[in-house]
Write a structure and sequence with these properties.
The complex is a heterodimer of chains A (456) and B (159).
Chain A: H1 5-29, H2 36-64, E1 73-74, H3 75-85, H4 90-115, H5 122-148, H6 159-166, E2 173-174, H7 176-179, H8 215-241, H9 248-274, H10 287-293, H11 303-334, H12 338-365, H13 370-398, H14 400-416, H15 428-434, H16 438-446
Antiparallel strand pairs in A: 1-2
Helix pairs in contact in A: 1-2, 1-3, 1-4, 1-8, 2-5, 2-8, 2-9, 3-6, 4-5, 8-9, 8-10, 9-12, 11-12, 11-13, 12-15
Chain B: H1 4-7, H2 10-13, H3 28-38, H4 41-49, H5 51-57, H6 62-68, H7 73-93, H8 102-122, H9 126-132, H10 152-157
Helix pairs in contact in B: 3-4, 3-8, 4-5, 7-8
């Protein structure tokens, strides 16, 4: 006899929790992985796992709606998955996810396909047909990470995990929402490949004099952009990992953005490769992760900290990206740099969504009170800039020669555009599509980062 | 196109990091002038009143002259107070192992005057830093969070 709807829902609950847990673990570890390729793969797989989990969850609801009940899983599931998250090193983690979790996930899907009612549960079978090839591909991709850094000696089994997996049906019964675990760590600094060199704290970082015309400076500009894609990927992933009790839609939005940043990094990488530059060839910056991870006025791990990260990165910086990308696309086209313009066209589309998501969730965190959002943004921005300015003073006072070199670079920048201050006009259409209000726009105009005229 | 080559294998293949190079990236000439002015009030007056002449006499570059123009009487006075503060802090850090010599305090004073003048020439706000970037002006205008070090100067510059 094939499974009943209740049996099918219970089977899907296990699959859903495994998928959601994989997304959770990948989100927490992306910033801790040293190799860029690992971060990109984790970001992409996190998004896929989150989307599959959301679709499975919807399917479970379809199976359970008529009886007003949802299947519960035992706490043992949580203990087994949490054990993977607590892996001691990146080698063990990669092996645990792709060598132990994915095979089990694939097997659970196959069992479901064999045991469920082929007509009654057609919706699940259709999803399985779509998801199984994707899971196999992801497993294969994940295992290739072991080749990246001579980690082939990774253990292929983990006795503690095996024991926990066998005992997963033990313990109290919990709803899916209750099973995800709180973050196991804090990661205040983004991990980069061994021997990477960084722009020092308080410095202005790379200062390409003429990023529009000079080929070497264009390459350096792209190098800077690449830093931003990775740090945003990492910060957003941690936003999801550190706040598992936020609504599922929050995690879906974040996972999408994390995967978007990975796509952007690949596209920028293509532009860099065409110009003979590789990431790490200039000094690397992780400032947009490290400088936005925590703030002294916010309790560590608090919703206020999450709010400040969202407000600064997604509604201030990515809002400005909407303006600046639109400006740069036009300039690059006029200069015949159609490959850069082409990539930026795609990135601009995504930035509108990212800012929109930031606006949505910052409002959600503040009870949809727009005045509170404006005030919180002002407070976060004031603290962030004051801290940056303090770091800047310290750097200059302690590194006078380096500060003089920066002055020379700034003068070179000024000469490249004949001394005129470059102002970025507001991208009215893009801002409106993202959902910025007039009050939001007046705030950023007032801060001097963008000009109100000409608005386009 | 093999994109993995762009990102992977950094330990094995990492090339030398390209450093940005600019002409005459040194503060040594300015420090020398500031140090001399610490014990020479007349030189302070000349720097404040006719910086371009002082710059010319000392063969300063265009960028060095821009910094010299930012030096003020107040900076010299404030630097004196701050240098004493920094020196006493260093004394505490050194565990009372030795009193800083007057020449050491004066050297700190000179460096403080130059540092603050560079900040004034470049601009000290986050927006100034953002404007210094011809591209992506909002992103990481100032590097923060990486290699953060001691808070020694924080108390001084909090004033």
């Amino acid at each position: 006899m094939p499974w009943s709807p209740e049996d099918a829902a219970l089977s899907l609950a296990g699959i859903t929790f495994l998928e959601r847990s994989v997304a959770h673990i990948l989100a927490g570890w992306a910033v801790k992985m040293p190799e860029f390729e690992e971060k990109l793969l984790f970001a992409t797989h996190m998004h896929h796992a989150m989307e599959r989990a959301a679709q499975w969850r919807s399917r479970i609801r379809g199976l359970c709606h008529a009886v007003a009940g949802e299947p519960c899983l035992s706490r043992g599931w949580q203990l087994a998955l949490k054990h993977v998250d607590a892996s001691q090193d990146t080698r063990s983690l990669v092996m645990a996810i792709y060598g132990m979790l994915y095979p089990r996930l694939i097997e659970m899907c196959k069992v479901h396909a064999r045991r469920t009612d082929s007509d009654g549960d057609r919706g699940s079978l259709d999803l399985l047909a779509s998801f199984l090839p994707q899971l196999r591909t992801e497993r294969r991709e994940g295992l290739t990470l072991l080749y990246l850094t001579e980690r082939m000696k990774a253990p292929t089994s983990d006795k503690a995990f095996e024991a926990l997996w066998l005992a997963r049906h033990n313990g109290e019964k919990l709803m899916l929402e209750q099973l995800l675990w709180e973050p196991l760590d804090r990661v205040p600094g983004a991990v980069r490949p061994e021997n990477s060199q960084f722009s020092p704290s308080g410095s202005l970082g790379l200062l390409p004099a003429d990023p529009l015309h000079d080929p070497a400076d264009v390459a350096m500009f792209l190098h800077k952009e690449m830093d931003e894609e990775f740090t945003t990927l990492e910060l957003l992933a941690r936003n999801s990992y550190e706040h598992p009790s936020m609504p599922w839609q929050f995690h879906r939005d974040v996972a999408r953005q994390v995967a978007d940043e990975a796509r952007h990094a690949r596209m920028i990488g293509r532009l860099m490769q065409a110009r003979g530059v590789r990431h790490g060839q200039y000094k690397i910056s992780t400032a947009s992760y490290d400088g936005l991870y925590e703030f002294e006025p916010c309790e560590r791990g608090s919703r206020k900290e999450l709010l400040w990260r969202i407000l600064i990165r997604q509604t201030f910086m990515e809002g400005l990206a909407i303006d600046h990308l639109a400006l740069d696309i036009g300039r690059r086209k006029r200069l015949g740099q159609s490959d850069i313009a082409h990539v930026f066209e795609y990135i601009l589309r995504d930035e509108v969504f990212h800012a929109q998501s930031g606006l949505r969730w910052s409002h959600d965190l503040l009870g949809s009170d727009h005045a509170s959002v404006l005030e919180a943004r002002r407070e976060a921005f004031s603290f962030f800039t004051a801290r940056a300015e303090s770091a800047r003073e310290r750097f200059v006072m302690e590194n006078l020669d380096a500060a003089m070199a920066e002055l020379a670079a700034i003068e070179a920048v000024k000469k490249s555009h004949a001394g005129a201050r470059q102002t970025t006009p507001l991208n009215g259409v893009g801002r409106k599509q993202a959902g910025f209000s007039e009050a939001d726009l007046n705030q950023v105009i007032g801060w001097g980062f963008v000009s109100d005229y000409p608005r386009y | 196109m093999n994109l993995s080559r762009l990102f992977s294998g950094h330990q094995k293949l990492r090339p030398e990091v390209v450093q940005q190079v600019h002409v005459n990236p040194t503060a040594v000439h300015l420090i020398k002038i500031a140090n001399a002015a610490i014990t020479d009030p007349a030189l302070v007056e000349r720097i404040v009143r006719e910086p371009d002449a002082v710059a010319s006499e000392n063969n300063l570059s265009e960028n060095e002259t821009k910094v010299l123009r930012q030096m003020t009487r107040e900076q010299f006075a404030t630097a004196r107070e701050d240098a004493s503060h920094v020196a006493s802090q260093r004394l505490v850090d050194a565990g009372e192992r030795g009193q800083p010599r007057q020449s050491e305090i004066e050297a700190i004073e000179g460096r403080m005057v130059v540092g603050r003048s560079i900040l004034a020439a470049v601009g000290r706000s986050y927006l100034d830093a953002a404007d210094a970037h011809a591209c992506c002006p909002w992103n990481k205008a100032i590097q923060i969070g990486v290699n953060s070090d001691s808070e020694m100067y924080a108390s001084v510059f909090a004033r």
